[in-house]
Amino acid sequence: LEVNTRLQVEHPVTEEVTGKDLVYEQLRIARGEELGYSQDDISWSGSSIEARLYAEDPSNDFLPATGTLIAYEADQNIDARWDTGIEQGSVVGTDFDPMLAKVIAKGRTRTDAANKLALALESLHIGGVTTNRDFLVSSLRTKDFLEGKTTSDFIDKAKPQRAVILKDESLENASSAAALWIQGKNRNEAQVLKDMPSGWRNSRLPRQKLNLNYLDETIEVSYQSNRNGTFDINNGTVAKVLQWSSEGIDIEVNGYRFFSKITQQDDQIVVHGPWGDVLFKILPRFTLPGSELQAGGLVAPMPGKVIDLKVKVGSKVKKGDTLVILEAMKMQNEIQAPIAGKVVEINCQSGESIEANTPLIIIEPIENKD
After folding, report:
1. In this predicted structure, what is the pLDDT of residue 291?
2. What number of CA atoms fall less than 13 Å from residue 348's CA on the CB side?
3. d(C-alpha 364, C-alpha 296), whole Å
4. CA distance 106 to 278
5. How far apart, in whole angstroms, are the C-alpha atoms of residue 117 and residue 225?
6. Is 122 exposed, middle or buried (0-12, 13-18, 19+ CB in 10 A)?
7. How far apart are CA 92 and CA 70, in angstroms?
8. Confidence of residue 190 (pLDDT cuts 50, 70, 90)
9. Hey, how many other C-beta atoms are within 10 angstroms of the C-beta on 335?
10. Contact (Cβ atoms closer than 8 angstroms) between residue 111 and residue 49
11. Of the four listed, 139, 155, 214, 358, which is most buried by Cβ atoms within 10 Å?
């Protein structure tokens, strides 16, 4: 048996099913008051489940993630409890535990509670930091979880999805929403000819284009406004903006209507819709000379401290060799060689604290003569 004379992280579950505020009761006892009731006075109703929303990457062995929360807003229309201490703009670094929030739902039955909790999580508008949100939603909706088969090998047996895999149609809808929201933002912020239709020209010119990056894939969205207020997008897609605001866009794409909550910060834009949240990077129209990543360059995937440097200039490495060990959030992360080659430049040293995307090592590929 385990006995802990303190509140557990899961205490909100007990509070939901008993109606007792355990934090309040703890403070009462601490100031010398009597508990005031016995075990026989406690009754339970319904079922409650708590999920821990973490800044971690389930697709990368649940390693902790860092970054700045571009978007962070729960849907207040869904009956769920959010215990959290962060907000949009919060920086998730390496100095604290990566838990972002505890999310608690109560239902008449365990299945009701699981469905309500999954809905609350997938309705969260969040971006800028990789989280386990989609993994939690998938876990809550698996057959094994709903049947209570949550043993220590649940992940291996049930195999819940660790990230949302977007269908081509969903990705097209998300990118279309992003492009037309940005054009609406440009019209709203225009200083001259603000009432002119978006993309209006008095001559025949190429369509407007926007390049977005999603999971290392470049997506080109080209569009042209029509006289009836619709837009032609890419290869025959017809879109209509029903309402635009700084917070999102109500849009119809090929007859399918949906609302996307959208948040942009610099060159990053988070698009929330029926598919979940998609984080795009807005690519510049022109690449500035010298801004390209050098071939064979290895960058830090997260901020941290270099605790070991395994190579030196001139070292020959094989693909998969460990080159650098970074410490972040009390965990050691091995940075491995993406290719076989020769180390020609090292831009870090042992004991140095670095930021994410800092160039670490440059490897010159070695051609295989076999």
Report:
1. 46
2. 31
3. 6
4. 28
5. 41
6. buried
7. 11
8. confident
9. 22
10. no
11. 139
**pLDDT 10s digits, 94-151:** 778 889 999 999 999 999 999 999 999 999 999 999 999 999 999 999 999 999 999 9
pTM of this prediction exceeds 0.85: no
Q: Nearest Cα to 359, choosing from 316, 319, 323?
A: 323
> How confident is the model over 281-299, as pLDDT tens digits?
999 876 555 445 555 578 8
Distance of CA 357 to the CA centre of its chain: 17
- Is residue 347 packed enough to be buried (19+ CB in 10 Å), middle (13-18) or exposed (0-12)? middle
- The two structure tokens encoding residue 31: 């100031």
Reduce the secondary structure of the chain to three states and give it as a string: CCCCCCCCCCHHHHHHHHCCCHHHHHHHHHCCCCCCCCHHHCCCCCEEEEEEEECEEHHHCCEECCEECCEEECCCCCCCEEEECCCCCCEECCCCCCEEEEEEEEECCHHHHHHHHHHHHHCCEEECCCCCHHHHHHHHCCHHHHCCCCCCCHHHHHCCCCCCCCCHHHHHHHHHHHHHHHHHHHHHCCCCCCCCCCCCCCCCCCCEEEEEEECCEEEEEEEEECCCCEEEECCCEEEEEEEEECCEEEEEECCEEEEEEEEEECCEEEEEECCEEEEEEECCCCCCCCCCCCCCEEECCCCEEEEEECCCCCCEECCCCEEEEEEECCEEEEEECCCCEEEEEECCCCCCEECCCCEEEEEEECCCCC
Contacts for 316 with CB less than 8 Å, ≥ 6 apart: 341, 342, 343, 366
